[in-house]
Write a structure and sequence with these properties.
single chain, 297 residues, mainly alpha, 3 domains, two-stranded antiparallel sheet, 4 strands
Length: 297
């Protein structure tokens, strides 16, 4: 934050310099502004974000009068001027506000708006996970089967695939597990896109891409193990190399090549394949580690 001090008097300003322990007398004949040039100025806060913060504060206790004030502010906020993240926030706050005010009509109206992380879809996935952790496998499968993955954000979609993979492994169904794992592998080329970076970026440098350590991905390890069990690692390697011959920058093919070589015991070759991916940790880049990248379940 920049530090500015405005002096609006006529006279003298005494500046003390510790290095020399001397007093310098500087004549001032009018208004003078002193600014610390060593610090950057702080950009003004987005007024729309300020309004959303006001709604959050007013909604904290769920009291009627405060909820009415929050409703007025929500009505004043131009929805089409908000960023995608702010729109999600607005919808969530507006739905809670309608519940606090007991406004069913407003709640139904808001139900038509789509958010990136819809609560009902998130909890459906978590319910399936909860059933699975209690060994209620059939119940978990029923919940997952009823979920339309086309309606999910990338995170929830990957979670569905992960749960399907875990269930298949528990049931000894290697083919179904492989199918689910390959769907997760198929998400990796989209790492650089906003739909992935929105959750995995560096909060200190949100516009700067983060890295992926391919050797530390559980589903990558499982992919190699399943190829080894089936005995088709070399076939996967050959197909990946054929595609790379046409497009050397094909990320999915590089990922498949790396895990196929790992399955074949060629760890140096796998490392070299991953090094060819610009956002891989293996490439030695100076990208930050991602946030919220952990095993589920």
């Amino acid at each position: 934050m920049s530090l500015s001090t405005r002096v609006s008097f006529s006279g003298f300003v005494l500046l003390s310099t510790l290095a020399t322990a001397a007093l310098l007398v500087v004549p001032v004949t009018g208004s003078t502004e002193l600014q610390d040039a060593g610090q950057e100025s702080t950009p003004a806060k987005d007024p729309l974000e300020t309004q959303l913060d006001e709604v959050r504060t007013l909604s904290r206790n769920g009291l009627s009068e405060e909820a009415k004030k929050a409703a007025d502010i929500l009505q004043q906020i131009p929805f089409d001027k908000l960023t995608e993240t702010q729109q999600d926030t607005w919808i969530s706050l507006a739905r809670d506000n309608a519940l606090q005010l007991g406004d069913l009509g407003r709640l139904k109206e808001l139900g038509e708006k789509q958010t990136t992380f819809p609560s009902d879809k998130i909890y459906e996935v978590l319910l399936a996970y909860g059933k699975l952790t209690r060994a209620e496998v059939d119940e978990s499968k029923k919940i997952l089967a009823a979920i339309n993955t086309d309606e999910l954000n990338p995170r929830e979609e990957r979670r569905v695939f992960a749960l399907q993979a875990k269930i298949a492994r528990l049931e000894g169904n290697a083919e179904a597990e492989r199918e689910a794992i390959e769907k997760m592998i198929g998400h990796l080329p989209y790492w650089t896109e906003s739909r992935c970076q929105a959750c995995h970026n560096d909060l200190k440098n949100p516009d700067r891409m983060t890295s992926v350590s391919f050797k530390d991905l559980w589903f990558g390890e499982r992919y190699s193990e399943l190829m080894k069990s089936k005995g088709d690692a070399d076939a996967v390697r050959q197909k990946a190399e054929e595609r790379l011959g046409k497009d050397p920058a094909d990320i999915l093919s590089l990922v498949q090549l790396g895990y196929a070589l790992k399955s074949l015991g060629d760890h140096d070759g796998a490392q070299k394949a991953f090094q060819r991916i610009s956002f891989s940790k293996e490439s030695g880049n100076d990208l930050s580690s991602p946030r919220m990248l952990f095993s589920f379940p």
